[in-house]
Amino acid sequence: MKITSFNINGVKARLPRLLEWLEETRPSVACLQEIKCQDESFPIGEFEKLGYRGIWHGQKGFNGVAILADGEAPVEVQRGLTGEPEDDHSRYLEANVFGLRVVCIYLPNGNPVPGPKFDYKLRWMKRLRERMAAIAAEEVPAIVTGDFNVIPTDHDVWSPAAMAADALMQPESRDAYVRLLGDGWTDALAIHNPRGGVWTYWDYQAGAWQRDQGFRIDHALLSPELADRLVACGVDKAHRGRERASDHAPIWVELRD
Description:
- One of its GO terms (molecular function) is metal ion binding.
- It comes from Novosphingobium endophyticum.
- The protein is of the alpha+beta class.
- The chain has helices spanning about 15-25, 45-50, 115-140, 170-180, 190, 225, and strands at about 1-5, 30-35, 50-55, 65-70, 75-80, 90-95, 100-105, 140-145, 185, 200, 215, 220, 230-235, 250-255.
């Protein structure tokens, strides 16, 4: 079984690339971030033509997450995080599918630092940790995947100095991420690539893709019940180089049934 995550950077703008990727790789579950559309305009019909069913949590012009499953309808468990009623950003979606708990997230970027956006990022990460603890207490096989907007270590960026002032690399962001791992979750890509050097994002500016100046901010965290089933994981890097591609590449984990 293959579970994937893809920050598509606009589902309608990148629809041809997204459908192409789904047909070529055929994941069992595809978690999407930054769909950037309202619920009523999500192009579910295009995915159904390929045999996928899905749920989504949209927002006009930015944010938005979705979970697609090959031949099975995900059963929604929760959308949005509790603890901050005024937070109306579409960034969290949780479902049961194929006997797994699948969580798709688009964590706040947090720039500029310092400022209210960074404060919101840290509060959001605290709320995420609380929800992940509740999932862990259920002792279900679970995966939390998506764009975390955190560069966990200096090995996860082409130049630590170039990103030193960014919210993605601040000590507070990294500490909040480490706390998730300390609660018992496994960073699949980190486990399989202990020396780092694996990127999931390349900026559109300054020839970042051509120079391979990227970093890793898309992650897949596995519960102990699921980590034992991890066979392989990776990044579909070639898809970042295609015409009108997202600035992210899809990540994937392969699990034993």
